Amino acid sequence: MKHLKKQTLILLSIASLFLVGLAVFAHLHKKEEKPIYSNLNSKASLNEVRSILSKHLNEESVDNFINLVTDYNDTVGSVGLSGSFAPFTKTDYDVEKISSLWAAKHGDFIGTNCRINTYTLLKGKIKIPQVKSDTELLFQDKDAIDKGKLFDTKDQANFDILFSRVKTEATQDVKVHAKHMEDYYKQFTFDDRARMLSVVVHDNLDGDSLFVGHVGVLVPTTDGYLFVEKLTFEEPYQAIKFSSKKDCYKYLTTKYKDYTGPGLAKPFIMDNDKWVDMD
């Protein structure tokens, strides 16, 4: 009888170790999941992203964003834009053809960019202080907002403040610049769920300053995160599913690592009002 009990205990131990092993394997496997993306150029992908965003953002903001996506894809979607989510690799878009199709329909309205779309999504989720803004580098944004009649006077002012140029020092030390951005964004109240991820670049053409060169919105999903961005005025929307926030940080750091120059600091990532230290 004792021998039988011993065998049973051994078998239970082996089974437990096996189950633990499976759990560890599943965890590691999930961590290694590759990102997938879509240009939202299909009804299914558009509805899926709308559903995910609507869990964290104001319905009106999501509707306005979806309208911008639909207008863009209806105009240039024939230029190889993806509908269904697919494995994410380096993307290469035919900007010349896109620009031609867009101009034929919209004339001198150049469309929208990352900052305009991010504000469209987050404007009801960020409390913006009424402080002085420096809009020197927002001239294209302001032209697009004006010609596209995208924002009213209040939203235009808040947009200017959110993406204002921030004064900094003549150094290549990212920590110094990050402190200036954190100090500026401490005046704002950001949302914990729908997060603003910014790629901040250093500029010294007119005194040393910091500027949000690229930005998008990150929201949680049932099994990871969804990052939504508009690459440039010409280039399309991308919705990318990542398994972790860190994977999204790595994507942004890698994609925009060359946005610098002699004597300038390398670009860095801000998650809402906090610097993301990738070192």
UniProtKB/TrEMBL annotation:
- InterPro entries reported for this sequence: DUF4300
The superkingdom of the source organism is Bacteria
Per UniProt, residues of the DUF4300 domain are 37-275
Q: What is this protein called?
A: DUF4300 family protein
Species of provenance: Streptococcus raffinosi
